[in-house]
Amino acid sequence: MADKQPAVWVISGPSGVGKGTVCNRLRERRPDLHYSVSMTTRAPRPDEVDGTSYHFVTPEDFQDLVERGMLLEYAQVHGTNYYGTPREPVEKALAQRTPVVLEIDLQGARQVKQNMPEARLVFLTPPSWDELVNRLRRRGTEDEATQERRLETARMELAARDEADHVVENRAVEDTVSTLIGLMSL
Ligand SMILES: Nc1ncnc2c1ncn2[C@@H]1O[C@H](COP(=O)(O)OP(=O)(O)OP(=O)(O)O)[C@@H](O)[C@H]1O
Ligand SMILES: Nc1nc2c(ncn2[C@@H]2O[C@H](COP(=O)(O)O)[C@@H](O)[C@H]2O)c(=O)[nH]1
User: Fold this and answer.
1) 16 is in an annotated binding site
2) Residue 77 and residue 116: Cα distance in Å, rounded?
3) What is the pLDDT of residue 186?
4) How much is the pLDDT for 4?
5) Can you say how many angstroms the Cα of residue 20 is from the centroid of all Cα atoms in its chain?
6) 183 CA distance to ligand 2 middle (Å)
7) pLDDT attached to residue 1
8) Which of 12, 77, 107 to mutate to test the pocket of ligand 2 (most atoms within 8 A of CB)?
């Protein structure tokens, strides 16, 4: 019998909403899924490990990956750095019928949906705009100008939330993860 479970889960939403936090917890509760590690030209944050958080690459190396068709999708996010999903690990996981989780921005999500219409897009929203701003500020990984740029993108992304297959409010992390797990088993 055909497996009806959609194999690619795209987790998107504005900067600071909690995508990374939710995906890290999802990984603990569902270690059987494949979690894509993106390429980025962004500089690592102090706690980030190359190859685990991201593959940190130079703009030249990123361009080379694009030209060689090594990325499933890619985008310039917040008008600054480039981010992209390595194609091969995703294709390998899917060939083994392992569901895949991509934590990517909305531009990338649109590309994935175009190429893989069966992919399911989950858009995380904050409980309120003020809470989103507070989460981004509290994280404290960006300077004020960068936070402002991220919040500008956030306004556009929130306005496009209806493009998603599922919109989930990230109030308490554990509840959000339970909702995701529930959606995955539908
Ligand atoms: N449900 C939640 N309630 C309260 N705080 C949260 C929640 N989820 C995440 N946070 C906190 O909000 C901050 C931003 O979370 P996180 O880094 O996961 O966001 P993100 O969506 O991945 O952001 P970006 O797109 O910028 O990478 C972190 O400090 C995190 O601990
Ligand atoms: N289109 C893609 N977007 C990605 C990818 N990996 C991460 N992201 C998104 O970038 C922003 C910023 O991330 P940060 O780590 O600098 O805070 C965030 O929205 C991520 O979801 C990717 O491979 N492709």
Assistant:
1) yes
2) 21
3) 78
4) 56
5) 7
6) 22
7) 45
8) 77
- Residue 131: pLDDT band with limits 50, 70, 90: very high
Question: Is the confidence at residue 5, as pLDDT, over 80?
Answer: no
Q: Which atom of ligand 2 is nearest to the CA of 75?
A: 1
Query: Tokens 């797990």 map to which residue?
Result: 181
Ligand 1 pocket test: which of 22, 139, 177 has the largest number of ligand atoms within 8 Å of its C-beta?
Answer: 139
In this structure, the number of other CB atoms found within 10 A of the CB of residue 37 comes to: 16
DSSP state of 50: B
* Burial status of residue 162 (CB atoms within 10 A of its CB: 0-12, 13-18, 19 or more): exposed
| Ligand in closest contact with the CA of 15 | 1
ipTM higher than 0.90?
Answer: yes
What domains lie within the chain, and their CATH numbers?
2-184 (3.40.50.300)
Cα of 172 vs centre of ligand 1, distance in Å, is 11
Q: What would the 3-class secondary structure string for 26-38 be? A: HHHHCCCCEECCC
What is the C-alpha end-to-end distance of the chain, expressed in Å?
A: 16
* Exposed / middle / buried, residue 149 (Cβ in 10 Å: 0-12, 13-18, 19+): middle
CA of 68 to the centre of ligand 1 (A): 33
pLDDT digits (tens, 9 = 90+) for 16-36: 999 999 999 999 999 999 999
